[in-house]
Design goal:
The complex is a heterodimer of chains A (107) and B (120). By secondary structure, chain A is mostly beta strands. Chain A has no helices and eleven strands. In chain A, strand 5 and strand 6 form a beta hairpin. Chain B is globular and about 40 Å long. In chain B, a hairpin with a 2-residue loop joins strand 9 and strand 10. Classes of the chains: A mainly beta (107), B mainly beta (120).
Chain lengths: 107, 120
């Protein structure tokens, strides 16, 4: 199974900041990586797939990059609605696996 | 507008069974792989199972293989998850999720989730 490791597990930031969350796969997953945002009590929402393709309707301050085993999600100019938990997911092979999540908190 | 509406969750005793259903609307259901993803209380996301658009291929997490069965009825736009021999470790919110066109192993749309509680 491919293990996905996110870092940090939590991060504190302020409105207007730039934040980067990283995700490492235990083996190469080419470009088969997605990112999700989840707010408390809500279902996750897709932000990015294919490493860097923004889901329709997602703000352009979200961006993704990486290849192989190392990936990142960057949020520029943090907005109040961005404080949430973020998950990466490898879509390369079954069993599909998620990172453990990164909680983005307001400083 | 894509909508996924799960039902069937509830309280079940250990060793019991439950069937979750998800009714889809707003898209051509028979064109998309469908999945179930769960989240135990206070924990992260865990993929459970995926069924191909035609229903001919199914995939399961090792943790549920042999206990859970995913199925779909394309004439009724529904996907189901039959869960047997349930234990406390299966307590979670179960989400139905729709794949992305051309990228079938990621989840573009999610239902609101249905809570399964396994307890005596």
């Amino acid at each position: 199974d491919i293990q996905m490791t996110q870092s940090p597990s939590s991060v504190s930031a302020s409105v207007g900041d730039r934040v980067t969350i990283t995700c490492r796969a235990s083996q190469g997953i080419r470009s088969w990586l997605a990112w999700y945002q989840q707010k408390p009590g809500k279902a996750p929402e897709l932000l990015i797939y294919g490493v860097s393709t923004l889901q329709s309707g997602v703000a352009s301050r979200f961006s993704g990059s990486g290849s192989g085993t190392d990936f990142s999600l960057t949020i520029s100019n943090l907005q109040p609605e961005d404080f949430a938990t973020y998950y990466c997911q490898q879509a390369n092979s079954f069993p599909l696996t998620f990172g453990q999540g990164t909680r983005l908190e307001m400083k | 507008e894509v909508q996924l509406l799960e039902s069937g969750g509830g309280l079940v005793q250990p060793g019991g069974s439950l069937r979750l259903s998800c009714i889809a609307s707003g898209f051509r259901f028979s064109d998309y792989d469908m999945s179930w993803v769960r989240q135990a209380p206070g924990k992260g996301l865990e993929w459970v199972s995926t069924i191909s658009a035609s229903g001919t291929s199914t995939y399961y997490a090792d943790s549920v293989k042999g206990r859970f069965t995913i199925s779909r009825d394309n004439s009724k736009n529904t996907v189901s998850l039959h869960m047997n021999s349930l234990g406390a470790e299966h307590t979670a919110v179960y989400y139905c999720a729709k794949s992305i066109s051309g990228y079938s192993t990621a989840f573009q749309h999610w239902g609101q989730g249905t809570l399964v509680t396994v307890s005596s």
